[in-house]
Amino acid sequence: MSADAEPTILTRGYQQEMLEESIRNNIIIALDTGSGKTHIAILRMKIELEREANKISWFVAPTVALCEQQRKAIQSHLPASVGLISGALEPNQWKDAALWRTVLSTHRVMVSTPQVLLDALRHGYILLGRDISLLVFDEAHHAVDNHPYNRIMKEFYFDLPPRPPIVSSAPQIAPAGVENEFVRPMVLGLTASPIYGGNPAKAFETIEGNLNCIIRTPRQNREELARFVHRPVFMHAVYAPPDPDNPPFSTNLAALDHLISTMDIEKDPYVISLRKQLAKARKGTAEYQRLDQKLSTVILKESSFTHKGLRDFARSAGEICQDLGSWAADWYVWEVFQHAKRAANPFQNLISNWKNVEKTYLLGLLDTVVLSPVSYYPDDILEECSDKVRVLIECLIAEKMDTEAGDESYSGLVFVQRRDTVLALSHLLSNHPFTRESFNIGCLLGSSDSSSRYSFLDITRHLLRDLQRETLDDFREGEKNLIISTSVAEEGIDIQACGSVIRWDPPANMASWAQSRGRARRKRSTYTGLFEDGGKQQQDVAKWIKLEKEMVALYNDPSRDIQMAGEEDSADDVEEVNLPFRVESTGALLTLHSAVAHLNHFCAVIPNTSHADNRPIYDIDPRTYPKVGTPWKIVPGMLLPVQLQNFEVEREYLTKTSAYRHVAFKAYRAMYEAGLLNDHLLPLTSVIEPELEEEVKGLLKEVEQRAGTANVSLQMDPWAADNPDIWFCSEIGFGDSHPIVLLTRSDTTPLAGAGPTLYRPNYDPVPTTFRRVWKFHLSPEELAAAEKYTRQLFWCINGSRMRWDRLDYSYLFQPPRPTADKWASRRAWNLELTAAQGKASQGDIFANAQAFGEKYGFPNDITVVHREGGFGRPHKFLRWRSEPLSPAEEERVRLFYRGLDEIKITYPLLVVEPYPARTNLLIPISPSKSHSPPIEKMTFNFLPCHSSVALISPEEVEYAFLLPSLLRSTAMNITINSLRTTLFTDTPLFNIPPPLVTAAMTAPVSQERVNYQRMETLGDTVLKFVSGIQLLAEYPLWHEGYLSRKKDHAVSNVRLAKEDIKRGLFTWIIRDKMLGKKWVPSYMAKPTQTTSPTDGPRSQSRKTQSLSTKVLADVVESLIGAAYLHGGTDLGYECAKFFDLGLKWQPLPDRLAAILSRVQAAQNVPPQLTHVESILGYKFRHQLLLVEALTHSSYEQDLRTSSYERMEFLGDSVLDMIVTEHLYHAPEKNYSPGHIHLRKSAVVNAHILAYICLRSYVEVSAGMPHPIHRGIAMSSETRTIYLWQCLLHSSPGILDDQMNTFKRFETHRTEIDNILEKGEAFPWAVLTRLQAPKFLSDMVESLIGAVYLDSGGNFDAVRGVLANLGILQILERIVHNDTDVLHPVSRLSLWASKYDRELEYLYERGKGNVICVVMVDGKEEARATERYRGRASQEEAKYTAAEQVIKLFGLRDSSMVHAIGASKPKRNKGKAKA
């Protein structure tokens, strides 16, 4: 498998099989350790707490440590208070029945040792039939003889009336009142080895009878069980026992033995105390005899606390010396002495039950002993270790090497019988030269909460540095890779799957052997026993293996289970009458023989949800299977609506196969009638018109042909004549200048009023107005005069690109006042002069500067200067220069005129400067440019004899500069007015303000100040939202897959382009660009050749210009965005409806009302719904919507609703709407589409929503009684219920994912919180480390959808929920602080593209880790290592490595963010190699 491969985790079928069986019957689940028995029990309790509102589930486990662990696991997964009653709470002192009732009322699940429950039942504080609905016995094989498990059942269970049978595999909510009946609770047992003694059949019969259960193991999913439960390879290693003639010698142990041999029992404080009491007692009394007998026994056996304790201590040290060697014994004696001295100090209270007089006596004895600390030199340790230690170390090192050779990380477990040996062996291995660098070692010991312990060796409990929970957590996280444990780890304790289990001591019995072996459950694992050479332990193991085979064969024997009886299919043909169903339009046929296959195919194509199996479940009802006919039913799955989830046949059939076929036939026909199948009886693979794609392709092809071959622009000509004989006259004002008259054949009446503001460099903004508009007929003389004046205006600036003889302008101008002024006389003089000289003239506008100056005395009122001929770039006149040029200046002048034959410099010269290149004056000057320091202008010295001056007034020159931009604005306004009066007339869209429509119709290629991109981003979100509402209401039986596919088709670019073309909307798209340097006025007749686009649309006929599908679609979406901005969702809906899109449109309030009308009243809803409402801060009026939003498709309880996918479909678009609108309107930001997308992605991505789900919680009361100085008091404890725990599901896989993800969340929560609250960048990398499953983010989105529906479409209600969840706060901080939201991998890719660097990601696997190496231009720049847990770990390493490179090169720069969308990457060299 490649490094990219990541297996899909699904609910394990064998666990589901056991769960379903436990719902119907009392069973003992017999599965190997590591197969997930606890998960099955948790799911079973989850179902019970959702079904039984007034009873609790009671989980009993044989040890306190196991109770603590199981309580933690249950509480982590269930959204309810889970209580733990242990000895530390002194339950034997809970004398008040009301106290017990309080405990039961505030908790839904109770965990305890069996004795606690038995005592409570015996005292009548708990009534089994009234208070408990489910009993779970962990390690159920203990239920024999007088064990409390057995006593609970015999004394209280069997006297209760039986519980009514549950006949359905899908649990049903009990009717009101039933849960209060005194009936037997359901019983569920868990065990890995349901055997004791040597007779499996007898053991089974006894345990099953005692617990009223049947032992079950998976039958239908055995192959899958084998894939998940891996039996280890059994190995053995033989060691040599100590030489009896030369036993190991421990100096410290010898000193201890010497102390014991010299002790005098008569000096013991306990003996002295007894003698004093005896002296005070009267002889012959019972008290005297009792004390005398006790004193005699203590003296005879030397059984006082100190004497017995020191002898036990010496015996333990001696066994350690024999087992581990003298070094370990020396360390053990030394270490215990040090702790004993501290414990014996009267001022210490390490062991509270030791009396001070005993402490003083013990301390005096210990002070007489001289001990030596151990040496930690490697040679000393090696020399003083036993052969058993040597063999153990060889096994450990070999196993570690083999494991790491297979690219896995090592984890091992060593089982030791004695707790003191655990301590000594752990310390020895931690310091042994062969193991101290390779193994990080932890210890697990048995524990007790009882306060009555009174033993000298209790001090060894304080030798353990780490708590059991910490050790287990470190082992799971890989911080520790080897655990030395007593039998506490055999039974139930949740330990990470090990690759190697070693028995230091042989197991005591078969159960111990089987359970410790079950800890080695990796795919490649070993189970090694250490056997003494010549010992008999190997014979015991062979016997246990034989017994286990008999046990497995017994509980797999079908004859023990009447529910697994065989079936006969020979009668099929007799019963299966012909029941064909034919679709007349296509001839498609459904028969009994094809129905099962059809139904399986339908369920297979339903969108897959993790941890859910969409396959149909065929269920027998009742569960017994007699030889007579039996009705059957089918459950296709929670993804479908309620009415399509369950089907039953009405009669009995002789065979299972026949019943299968009939119920499948019924179900599949119902699917067709519900519209989930097409007329070919196949699932709807295309839920839109199948001819759509070809039709639109044809239309687009036609557009391309028209654009490529015709001389008619696709963009409308705003100057086209409505009536060629009528002219519309407008007075245009530029600030304080005289107005100029504009003549057009297009109606400019709607433009009357304020015009655009024009922005010229180095000038104040110029406001414009359309002061009057009227229409009239022009006489031929007036027309000719206007044409000449128009040419005169534009020729001085743009004459090089115009033809003198062309006067058919699309618009004309008349002067602001009579033209009989000095400029008219100057033009008349120039005309006479050129005629007299016989020069070919193109008019009277340009005059030779030398002649003009000589004639008029070199005046300073000229404005525009050209080089000779009036062509080239226009220059601004500054002054006449008479002072001589410097040599350098003269050299520059001669260089400038180097093309002339002879250059004669005469004075005065013309001093000029170029006009600014800026021409589209509609675009404001950016603040950075307006406030930047002025740039020194470049001036030139022109020779007047080789220069021309324009003979028009400065005011007219100003017009010449301003008019092209004004004409551009006028053309755009006429275009938009045409759209509104042509296409939008008599529709609600006509009410959209023209400025919004103008922006919506302006393509980015036009390079205008505002284009449709931002509105398109908003409109895309609005369109998906309103179309999603339509589909959700129109198709109540469609699952999310159909809805998404239909919506994707409806809002696709192809579909939108089709609707654009159908309505001719493309003709109003403003996509031509105003190129100032090449601008020419628009003409009525088309030129034969076009060299460049102009502001007139007629030149848009170039073959190189095309209309892409995206542009056509974007305009539709931008119009929807404009409608939403003006009229909210109602007008946005109207705009979407205008374009049809193949949907059936109804107003949003009507659609929401229709959806809500189908929501049934909720009954007996799961209790955790109130917790969810508290977390959201919202009270649901339609609680079934909340149920649906929390229901995973794996859920098997019938709550009359489908799973959450439809709510998630809606919630996704609602969340997009709120976030996109917030970003669109962010004050002073004006985010581009790219920046909106970046920030929205940061807030709505699955990682952050999963994080929100993981951190959202509510506190509920969970007080428990606890002992105080004088009695029992109720604590004020609370229980934290997290949102993720409230998911309704029936999947062990989800339990695994929830717990593992929450552990990662707890590890990274502080870091994520700090970054979100104070960081400059978004925490992409650390969020990825959560490796959160998708269902967590789905929960948040589905709840958002449910709130929107329940509130009747109230966005403010949804915003309130988003605020309570913290989503809005994250969004607001991103906006307010300009948080860097660019993904690290994207940032690195942009940087590599921008600077043409080669970027490469390489992956390495080894020792259970994945390493990502980032190569830049072939050089390694960073590497990151993560534990390999699939594709998610690889991505985590990639993000971490990318962050390292970003920090290394200092790439966290805002300029990189602004580079998004600016240009396409030059090349994409980022690649990953596994």
Write a short abstract of this structure.
By secondary structure, the chain is an alpha/beta fold.
What's the helix and strand layout?
Blueprint: H1 13-24, E1 27-30, H2 37-51, E2 56-60, H3 64-77, E3 82-85, H4 97-106, E4 109-112, H5 114-122, H6 128-131, E5 132-138, H7 148-157, E6 186-191, H8 200-211, E7 214-216, H9 222-228, E8 233-239, H10 251-262, H11 269-280, H12 286-301, H13 305-324, H14 326-344, H15 356-366, H16 378-383, H17 387-405, E9 412-415, H18 419-431, E10 441-444, H19 468-477, E11 482-485, E12 500-503, H20 510-517, E13 526-532, H21 537-555, H22 572-575, E14 581-582, E15 589-590, H23 592-605, E16 617-620, E17 632-635, E18 647-648, H24 656-673, H25 692-709, E19 727-734, E20 740-744, E21 753-758, E22 766-776, H26 780-798, E23 811-814, H27 822-837, E24 846-848, H28 849-856, E25 864-867, E26 875-881, H29 887-896, E27 909-914, H30 927-930, E28 940-942, E29 947-950, H31 954-982, H32 994-1001, H33 1013-1034, H34 1040-1050, H35 1053-1063, H36 1109-1138, H37 1148-1157, H38 1169-1176, H39 1183-1190, H40 1205-1224, H41 1233-1244, H42 1246-1255, E30 1257-1261, E31 1265-1268, E32 1271-1274, E33 1278-1282, H43 1292-1318, H44 1324-1328, H45 1334-1350, H46 1355-1365, H47 1367-1376, ...
Parallel strand pairs: 1-6, 1-7, 2-4, 2-5, 3-4, 5-6, 8-13, 9-11, 9-12, 10-11, 12-13, 34-37
Antiparallel strand pairs: 14-15, 16-17, 17-18, 19-20, 19-22, 20-23, 21-22, 24-29, 25-26, 25-29, 26-27, 27-28, 30-33, 31-32, 34-35, 35-36
Helix pairs in contact: 1-2, 5-7, 10-13, 10-14, 11-12, 13-14, 13-18, 14-15, 14-18, 23-24, 25-35, 26-31, 31-32, 32-36, 33-34, 33-36, 33-37, 33-40, 35-36, 39-45, 40-41, 40-45, 41-47, 42-45, 48-49
